[in-house]
Design a protein that fits this description.
With 557 residues, the protein is mainly α. The protein has 25 helices and no strands. The chain has helices spanning 6-25, 27-30, 34-39, 46-57, 61-73, 79-102, 107-114, 117-154, 159-207, 211-221, 242-252, 264-270, 275-291, 293-307, 316-320, 328-364, 370-392, 398-408, 413-421, 427-447, 453-474, 480-490, 498-503, 512-538, 541-556. The radius of gyration is 23 Å and the shape is globular. The chain starts with 5 loop residues before the first helix and ends with a helix.
């Protein structure tokens, strides 16, 4: 296989130096306070937020995992990703304003305002470990595994040499520049990511004879399996059953760890200049996240033609990169390194924000200097990186780990949505849903690995929901005074809060009706634009343009 030469390494070196320069530029600001280090002073404009969210969600594992999904189920296998974009639209219109009003650094910090007492404090610590260590290290682990898969295919270096070097590079600019440095670097990285993906897709499509020849060859190789269809049809024979499609379209987008925009998205929304910038930036991310799948889909289809179904389908993407001439190969490697560094830098900043903000500063060392907390944050980054590097050794399939981690938290997704809009949710609701969901998902993974992911997700959600509802009704509600303060702080509308609003004679603040209408319109826009791009590439130019035009009209509405 073709490997990198001097010109490729030179391109990579220039990119790394540019990343250092951006981190160094923000060094003084990032070191001035915890708010600056983790939230860039809450003054980030919408376009930076949108690009940063899109970049950090396009990790180096992203093209490899999509390549495997396409190899297993054709274009419609990408519904695993597309359905999560619906969560982005829901976050835009239901939650982005609420997160900005809450003015929190992490979703664990929200516990301080939503609940009360010792149980609330215990939940905050539990969630700090749950998100800051467990989920965060799993995500970093599969990203590190993706880096190893790509770089060992095109360089002579060993896994630990590759991992140690690029983790160290990313840690340095993350710890020097804080979130402001991360966001600015993300913008540069997103441009490089998309250039890399489009260039590789163009070379791959040209190699198999063009779009028309690619479609004909796929239809011939997988006759009757509808590999180029966007969704299951009524004729049968599709590689994705209707039951799986139903789970993706109607369940997965709210049954996941980011159901209300939690985790890394909160940092961006909380860092926005105001509510409007938070909303527009989140909406921009949802569109970019979905459209970015198409260059990968084209490359994955070409990999199927050229290499067939590999023992490890995820290796189809890096093997395609060997088609590229040197120099261009270096540019595309920079694109994947950008995807790696943009996501890893976010998680290097995110994980310590839980550990320091929600555990260390909240309960152990409450009155230290800002410089002390920033030093502890940087030390926490090193620990998170080491734990994730060790975990990456045990990860084989990135796509499988994607799905397991999502199902691990799936049962709690509905609780994280309802806590905003229903006063009766309490700390026990969150405890129960997270623990029950994790236990069920782990049991299914270990004892019944033959159960397909959509079915496992459905089982986890079906078991968890009645359990958390029962526990909620059997335990005491949050004190009314705490509920009143939370309602006044975030103003989530009266649905589910009528009792509190009437008891304290709080002025009605309409919210949910408009949010729901915009959610429906936004989802329609998302898929019109997404399928418009796909139709334009694989089917009909005029039909694709028409779909995008209708989406533009909805955007105005």
């Amino acid at each position: 296989m073709k490997q990198l030469i001097f010109i490729d390494y030179a391109v990579i070196a220039v990119y790394i130096l540019a990343s250092f320069a951006i981190g160094n530029y923000y060094l003084r600001k990032a070191g001035s306070s915890v708010d600056e280090y983790f939230l860039s002073g809450r003054r980030t404009p919408w376009w930076l937020l949108g690009l940063s969210m899109a970049a950090t969600n396009y990790a180096i594992d992203y093209p490899l995992a999509i390549t495997k999904l396409v190899a297993k189920q054709g274009v419609m296998g990408t519904w695993y990703v597309w359905s999560l974009a619906i969560a982005g639209i829901a976050t835009t219109f239901f939650f982005s304003r609420l997160w900005r009003r809450a003015r929190v650094m992490t979703d664990a910090e929200l516990v301080k305002y939503r609940y009360s007492g010792k149980l609330g404090n215990a939940l905050r610590i539990f969630k700090g470990v749950y998100f800051g260590v467990i989920i965060n290290c799993f995500v970093l682990g599969w990203i590190f595994r993706a880096l190893i898969k790509v770089m060992t295919a095109i360089t002579p270096f060993g896994p630990w040499q590759i991992l140690t070097f690029f983790v160290a590079v990313t840690m340095i600019y993350t710890m020097t520049g804080g979130l402001a440095g991360v966001i600015m670097t993300d913008c540069v990285q997103y441009v490089m990511i998309m250039i890399s993906a489009v260039v590789l897709a163009c070379f791959a499509v040209a190699h198999v004879g063009g779009i028309g020849a690619m479609s004909a060859k796929i239809n011939a190789l997988y006759q009757g399996q509808h590999y180029l269809d966007f969704a299951p049809g009524i004729k049968g024979g599709q590689v994705m059953p209707w039951s799986a499609f139903f789970v993706y379209l109607f369940i997965q987008w709210w049954a996941n760890k980011y159901s209300d925009g939690g985790g890394k998205h909160i940092q961006r929304m909380s860092a926005a200049r105001n509510e409007t910038h938070s909303v527009i930036g989140t909406f921009m991310y949802s569109i970019l996240y979905t459209i970015s799948t198409w260059p990968i889909i084209l490359a994955a289809l070409c990999a199927l033609i050229m290499f067939g179904k590999l023992p490890d389908p995820e290796m189809g993407y890096p093997r395609l990169m060997t088609l590229l001439p040197n120099g261009v190969l270096g540019l595309c490697v920079v694109g994947l390194l950008s995807a790696f560094m943009s996501t890893v830098s976010t998680h290097f900043n995110l994980g310590p924000s839980y550990l320091v903000n929600d555990i260390y500063r909240a309960f152990f060392v409450k009155n230290a200097s800002q410089k002390h907390y920033i030093l502890v944050s940087r030390l926490a980054t090193v620990l998170v990186a080491l734990a994730s590097m060790i975990l990456s050794v045990y990860i084989e399939s990135i796509a499988d780990m994607w799905q397991f981690v999502l199902s691990f938290a799936s049962g709690a997704g509905i609780v994280w949505v309802l806590r905003w809009f229903w006063w009766r949710i309490n700390a026990w609701s969150e405890f129960t849903s997270m623990i029950c969901s994790g236990v069920v998902a782990s049991y299914l993974k270990l004892a019944h690995p033959e159960i397909p992911y959509p079915s496992a997700l459905l089982i986890t959600v079906t078991v968890t929901i009645p359990v958390f509802l029962l526990v909620t009704w059997l335990t005491a509600p949050v004190p009314d005074e705490a509920l009143r303060d939370f309602y006044n702080k975030v103003k989530p509308g009266q649905w589910g809060w009528r009792r509190i609003a009437e008891k304290y004679r709080i002025t009605r603040t309409p919210y949910l009706t408009r949010a729901f209408v915009n959610f429906l319109l936004g989802t329609a826009l998302l898929f019109l634009v997404n399928f418009g791009v796909g139709t334009l590439l694989l089917r009909s130019v005029w039909l694709g343009v028409s779909e995008i035009a209708v989406g533009a009209v909805i955007a105005v509405i």
